[in-house]
Amino acid sequence: MRADDLILFAQVVDCGSFSLVAEQLNVTNSVVSKRISRLEQDLGVQLLYRTTRKLSLTEAGTMLLTQARHIHAATQEAFDSVAGMGEQISGTLRLSVPTISGELLLAEAVAKFCRMHPQLRVDMSLDNRFVDVVAEGFDLVIRTGQLNDSSLIARHLVESEWLICVSPSYLAQFGTPNAPEELSQHNCALYHQSGATADDWHFRRDGKDFSVKVSGQMRLDNGQALRRIALSGEAIVFLPRVLVYEDLLAGKLVELFPGQVQKTLGIYAVYPFTRKAPYKIRCLIEFLREQYQRKRSYFNSQR
């Protein structure tokens, strides 16, 4: 049995016509018909009922179709993975990335990618603003959180876990909250993003979800500034783990309620919908995914 005959069988079923497939492959109808007949002979079963108006699957054809489609998809994926490898990575790419990832990882990673490909130029904007990928002419955007735009293609890079942290000096002065509910009695600096302030902090304890309304004297739209406030001992903050990972290791900050905080957001590489992304974009996405995965422990506590 030949794998290309299985692929042809899947194509015939999906097109619903021998002639359409023959036209796509630039062969005659008889060639397609003979190859399907050969497949049926090899298997010893009939796969298709043929009439002058339509094709329909037999029971055996229905059972075979799923596997034939898998083979077709795997073959296409294999071709796509190497398509364009002879192309030179050159020209200009416009990127929009959030400030935290840009400052901590992406700027250096993109610089390494550019060194590997001297003919490439990258115009990178570090901004937490929710950009319009198509209207603003970006080739690639790094986004965190839920993706709703079906006109965009997304590639998952890593899961970003958030945590509540505070400096030892704050705890020494104001005491340690023993339960999430006690946070309402403390000064919490709040992260203000996209016009909304996150003053409901979510938790899970004993299998039940709940939230605590917190408040504080300051609201900021910059994660690094919130980190500095925490380090100064002025407030409790709620931030992505990656932003304070090294501070936690050094003992400059302490994590509160580990395992109870309920906020994890996916980080994605997003680009406009096309049948197949340009080779240089595919290469950059794969390179960035490798960089994120190497520092996965910075982003979440799951090993």
UniProtKB/TrEMBL annotation:
<comment type="similarity">
    <text>Belongs to the LysR transcriptional regulatory family.</text>
</comment>
<feature type="domain" description="HTH lysR-type">
    <location>
        <begin position="1"/>
        <end position="58"/>
    </location>
</feature>
<keyword id="KW-0238">DNA-binding</keyword>
<keyword id="KW-0805">Transcription regulation</keyword>
<protein>
    <submittedName>
        <fullName>LysR family transcriptional regulator</fullName>
    </submittedName>
</protein>
<dbReference type="InterPro" id="IPR036388">
    <property type="entry name" value="WH-like_DNA-bd_sf"/>
</dbReference>
<dbReference type="InterPro" id="IPR036390">
    <property type="entry name" value="WH_DNA-bd_sf"/>
</dbReference>
<dbReference type="InterPro" id="IPR000847">
    <property type="entry name" value="LysR_HTH_N"/>
</dbReference>
<keyword id="KW-0804">Transcription</keyword>
<dbReference type="InterPro" id="IPR005119">
    <property type="entry name" value="LysR_subst-bd"/>
</dbReference>
<dbReference type="InterPro" id="IPR058163">
    <property type="entry name" value="LysR-type_TF_proteobact-type"/>
</dbReference>
<dbReference type="Pfam" id="PF03466">
    <property type="entry name" value="LysR_substrate"/>
</dbReference>
<dbReference type="Pfam" id="PF00126">
    <property type="entry name" value="HTH_1"/>
</dbReference>
